[in-house]
Task: structure prediction
Amino acid sequence: MTEHPGFGVMLARLLDHREFSVEELADCAGLTVDEIRAVLAGEAPSEGLLRRISPAVGFHTVDLFILAGLAVPDDMAPLDAAAEQWAPYIVMDAVHLPVAARRELLLLIRSLPQEERLSVFAPRRLAPLADPGGWVIRMLQYRNLSWTGMGKTLAVVTPTYLSASTYGVISSGRQELTPRLVTDFAALLGIDAQELAALTGVYLSEVPPSPAPEAVDAAALLWEARRLSAAQARRVSELAGSMRGDSANGYFINLPGA
Result:
């Protein structure tokens, strides 16, 4: 298990990768240069600062909180932890559909009424934040994927095919992230693979190819489905399955590469 390098180090890696100056970040985020430099020097970021720099660096605020080793505020968490039962199937069925049908599902999810949050989001076996593996697993948990959901979804959308328990091993830091894992996790998280590699300290010997269109749409569907209740997620999942028609009797592994 490796020691957390501190959010300032991770932010510096991101800025360096993007060739983005401190002054540019401060201007985009509406912060002072001194505020940014203080974080880069090791000062713990405030909740307000993370919320401000999130759109400036193009990251979901949830992911920045996780990378900073902080608890995610309730207002940023998925609506309903019970939706984890259906979230994988929304994605797994959707990526078997033509692009127009995938976009139709995405628009449907966005159009559904926002229901009231009835409980605090508390994923089972929440990944610790002391190790890069824990960071990426927790990011996936905050997209309503359990270890089992990760195993199913990644197997269909990417070349990564692992057992549910292996994701627990990765989250604990007992199995290091590999370039293959970083690339595939990044695809499902909707994060640039090179940037996730820089943030997690994993060396990529070559520039990975761009994610397949199915993977891009999978990341978008997974993110948008966070706002659904379990009942809404179930209805969307059933619709995605019905849209496949007679072909909805199984899943191709690593579909984009099939």
Remarks:
- Residues 150 and 209 are 22 Å apart (CA to CA).
